[in-house]
Design goal:
The complex is a heterodimer of chains A (646) and B (189). With 646 residues, chain A is an alpha+beta fold. Chain A has 3 domains: 293 residues, no CATH class; 107 residues, no CATH class; 100 residues. Helices cover 62% and strands 12% of the residues of chain A. Chain A is built from 18 helices and 10 strands. In chain A, the strands form 2 sheets. In chain A, strands 2, 3, 4, 5, 6 and 7 form a 6-stranded antiparallel β-sheet that branches. In chain A, strands 1-10-9-8 form a 4-stranded antiparallel β-sheet. Chain A is globular, with a radius of gyration of 26 Å. Chain A starts with a helix and ends in a 12-residue tail after the last helix. With 189 residues, chain B is α/β, with parallel strands linked by helices. Chain B folds into 2 domains: 44 residues; 138 residues, Glutaredoxin. Helices cover 45% and strands 15% of the residues of chain B. Chain B is built from 5 helices and 5 strands; from the N terminus they run αβαβαβαββα. Chain B has a 5-stranded mixed β-sheet with strand order 3-2-1-4-5, with helices on both faces. The chains are: A alpha+beta (646), B alpha/beta (189). At the A-B interface, helix 10, helix 11, helix 12, strand 7 and strand 9 of A face helix 1, helix 2 and helix 3 of B.
């Protein structure tokens, strides 16, 4: 009975949201505050109803109601509670309901923004609701999460063991907040095209939403990569897998948008470009959903793929991207831009160059992702495009971005006036040269190691230099909390934190890419393995029972310079219910890097095959991503109403 | 407001149109491919094993000194040939079931377009159920066998004829409901 209630709630929400769309379109020409009020109420109801139905689905998973198809396919009574809950979105139907829940939440929160002019606000809510009803239709007609089974199974089939992991439990929700959050800026852009209303305030109101979505997307991608690193046991953190790329492309575009919109906050120029980026960012999110959900790709991600769903998503994609692009072709030439001259050495130019490179980078990723698919469709040739392609294309394109990132914050808006600019540049170059030489002396690796290491130093120094000069300029007394907030917003701390994040990330990448070492050995119990200054002692190997798996666990002791550091316990887990096996690497992380130990095949007589990686600075990769996300959130506090040249 | 079309403003729409069109073609192909897969299965069944040449340096276990993967010695028993690859995610999922299968009959592994060390790593990590494992570096053997993609599993009867083919990961349910009964029924062939 309770699941049917959830189903009915989804149906009612679909009806209400469709009616809301009609109401919006009908009143398009005569929008006033009353129309907005109606749409606001509608958004609240949509949000509450979907939230309730999501709770119902979660309840069914917690109570292991195997009469529901997706529960019996994806859950099991023996599963720990957290994975019962994460099982809700560990499958196609449930993850779509989560998608829709987040969309309705964003719609509701943006609808509360009465400070946006009512004509624009009505259209923003309207566009959001159109997307909502399209996805509700998709759920109801192709992927109903509340479908019952005919024969009641005794127990569920379980969740793919690879997906039973705390990092992965949070990965989809964060990613979806990012994807769906970009729908808000998309709606801003479409609303501007529909109403023809665009102003600096439009840009100001839009930026926090982009920042929130961008931060969530950053965290989501980082969690996915972290999971790949320690669960899959391949010893890598990014594989340029099409599904990873699908989440990376909206991130790149959103990054471009986040910078570009700041120009528009100051002066009404680049209106078309900002609108196009807003549309593209969400389009790439939809494309990401499409790629993962349609079965175009088979991998761990495609847990429920079905071409007929793909066709439906293609239709949704056609409407929600095609229509705005048609509007864009017709209307974008009608916006009046202000006359805006700016020097070649100015913030505007730097941001434009940043946008140029970021969009080009997105394009290279897009080509690398879609080309194998299309080639396969055209003549059946299977090609795989791997890191070699991206190292040759993506990395060189991003190099100038990072290079500029260090110096662009020094620049002023519009005019080149800063006398200290050259001084700062010389200081930066000196520090980088010193750091680069040091890097070269410590361990001589390839030229690329040197470049990316130096870039990281360059960026780090740049951000710190800029931060110090901003703090000096700010001259705020820090006596109470209010002043602290004022101070934070004045020095644009978000930008610094995010850029420091990039520097940390780049340092991590450099360490992991160029300075890692790998050992393959076969050892028996009692043996000692020497790795540089560290040594590993093979203590024992035994069978251990987990909640829903049996495990073969080896125990090692790690010593550094003969001093005890830690125990390492790599495992091979055998999930009895799913009849599948996972490799649990033992990882010892510290500030300077990871020791990564994987247990292979073997037996008592011949010994066990072991794979040991030493990955310097690898945790910096995710620390960097975390800093970026925090920076994104902090940038929301940054006031943009000041027209000072900061 | 003036409404005039500019070429540059129509460009995003045009690009998008082409992407949608080609995605549609890909999806359509996917549906057709399913049909091809079925017809392929019926074509191969009942035929002799195709010629399978693997240079001996491409063998993981060097049991075999012949240049040809020697099927002769499996004559008079049913055996299986499993195409896999270390880079293939579904093969990882399938590994424990292939292991079950290897307890019933000999399984020969052919690593499709794989490297020696990668294959060895894969077998270390996920278990080596194969009586012998050869690498199909160029992918030619897979073409001879009409392999649609990895993983793929073939059953061969005592007379050296292909009697069963499964494309895609051999899931436990398929193993239990299709393969085992099939083996039971074709014991006397």
């Amino acid at each position: 009975m309770i699941p049917e209630l959830g189903h009915i709630l989804v149906i009612i929400t679909f009806v209400i949201s469709t009616m809301q769309c009609c109401y919006w379109l009908y009143n398009l020409r005569y929008t006033n505050i009353d129309v907005v009020r109606v749409l606001q109420k509608g958004s609240l109801i949509n949000f509450l109803f979907i939230f309730l139905s999501f709770l119902i689905l979660t309840y069914s998973f917690i109570t292991s109601d195997f009469s529901l198809l997706i529960v019996s396919n994806n859950s099991h009574t023996l599963k720990p509670l957290i994975y019962k809950i994460s099982g809700v979105w560990g499958n196609h139907e449930g993850s779509l309901l989560l998608w829709v829940l987040i969309l309705s939440a964003f719609t509701f929160f943006v609808s509360l923004k009465d400070s946006i002019n009512s004509k624009l606000l009505a259209s923003i809510i309207g566009v959001q609701t159109v997307i909502l009803s399209l996805f509700l239709a998709f759920i109801l007609f192709t992927s109903n999460p509340f479908e019952r089974v005919d024969e009641l199974p005794l127990d569920g089939r379980g969740l793919n063991p690879l997906l039973q992991d705390p990092g992965l439990a949070l990965h989809p929700p964060m990613l979806y907040i990012g994807y769906v959050g970009l729908s808000v800026s998309f709606s801003f852009a479409v609303a501007a095209l529909v109403t023809g209303e665009i102003s600096k305030d439009w840009a100001r109101q839009m930026r926090p939403w982009i920042a929130i979505a961008w931060s969530a997307l950053t965290i989501g991608i980082a969690l996915g990569s972290w999971w790949a690193y320690y669960e899959l046991g391949w010893g890598g953190w990014w594989f340029w897998d099409p599904v990873e790329n699908a989440s990376f492309m909206p991130w790149l575009i959103a990054t471009a948008l986040l910078h570009c919109v700041r120009i528009l906050e100051k002066k009404l120029i680049f209106i078309n470009w900002t609108i196009l980026l807003s549309i593209l960012a969400f389009s790439f999110s939809l494309l990401g959903t499409f790629i993962v959900r349609s079965g175009l790709l088979t991998s761990v991600h495609a847990f429920a793929s079905d071409p007929s769903r793909g066709v439906f998503i293609l239709i949704i994609l056609g409407i929600s991207i095609g229509v705005p692009l048609i509007l864009y072709s017709i209307k974008s030439s009608s916006f009046n831009e202000e006359k805006g001259n700016f020097d070649i050495v100015s913030k505007e130019s730097a941001i434009l160059v940043n946008n140029l490179f970021l969009t080009t980078a997105t394009l290279t990723v897009l080509i690398g992702t879609l080309y194998p698919l299309f080639l396969d469709a055209i003549n059946g040739n299977k090609v795989s495009i791997g890191p070699a392609y991206y190292n040759a294309t993506f990395a060189p394109i991003m190099t100038p971005v990072v290079f500029l990132m260090a110096i662009a914050p020094f620049l002023n808006w519009k005019k080149y006036t800063d006398k200290n600019f050259i001084k700062k540049l010389i200081f930066l170059s000196a520090v980088t040269l010193l750091g680069g030489t040091l890097l070269y002396l410590i361990e001589e690796k390839s030229i690329f190691a040197l470049i990316s290491g130096s870039l990281s130093i360059w960026l780090f120094t740049g951000v710190i230099t800029d931060l110090i000069s901003k703090i000096r300029e700010a001259k705020v007394k820090l006596q109470n909390i209010k002043q602290l907030f004022f101070f934070i917003s004045k020095i644009n701390i978000g930008i610094h934190v995010a850029h420091i994040g990039v520097a940390i990330f780049l340092a991590g990448v450099t360490g992991e890419q160029f300075y890692k070492s790998e050992y393959n050995v076969i050892k028996k119990v009692g043996d000692i393995i020497n790795i540089g200054t560290k040594s590993l002692k093979f203590d024992k190997i035994e069978n251990i029972d987990g909640p829903n798996y049996n495990s073969l666990m080896a125990t090692f002791t790690l010593y550094e310079n003969n001093k005890f550091i830690s125990k390492l316990r790599p495992e091979k887990r055998f999930y009895t219910n799913e009849k599948s096996q996972t490799t649990e690497a033992a990882i010892l992380s510290d500030f300077w890097g990871d020791t990564y130990l994987v247990l292979g095949e073997g037996d008592k007589k011949t010994g066990w095959s072991l794979r040991i990686y030493s990955n310097p600075l690898v945790s910096w990769i995710w620390a960097g991503a975390f800093f970026m996300a925090v920076g994104g959130i902090l940038s929301v506090t940054q006031k943009s109403s000041r027209f000072r040249n900061v | 407001m003036k409404h005039n079309l500019k070429i540059l403003n129509v460009l995003p729409l045009t690009v998008f149109f082409f992407i949608v069109l080609s995605s549609g073609i890909v999806l359509y192909q996917l549906k057709i491919d399913k049909r091809i897969e079925k017809s392929l299965a019926s074509q191969l069944i009942g035929k002799n094993i195709p010629e399978t040449l693997i240079p001996k340096e491409n063998f993981i276990e060097k049991i075999n000194n012949l240049e040809n993967l020697n099927f002769e010695k499996y004559h008079d028993q049913i055996f299986a040939v499993n195409f896999f690859a270390s880079w293939c995610a579904p093969c990882r999922i399938e590994a424990p079931i292939i292991d079950e299968l290897s307890k019933i009959l000999p399984v020969i592994g052919i690593a499709y377009k794989d490297k020696y060390l990668d294959t060895k790593k894969f077998l270390d990590d996920f278990g080596n159920p194969y009586i012998e494992t050869g690498i199909d570096k160029s992918g030619k053997i897979a073409i001879e066998w009409g392999v649609y993609g990895v993983p793929e599993t073939f059953l061969i009867n005592k007379k050296g004829k292909i009697i069963y083919r499964h494309a895609g990961p051999l899931l436990y349910s398929i193993f239990k409901d299709e393969v085992l009964p099939y083996l039971e029924s074709s014991k006397n062939d």
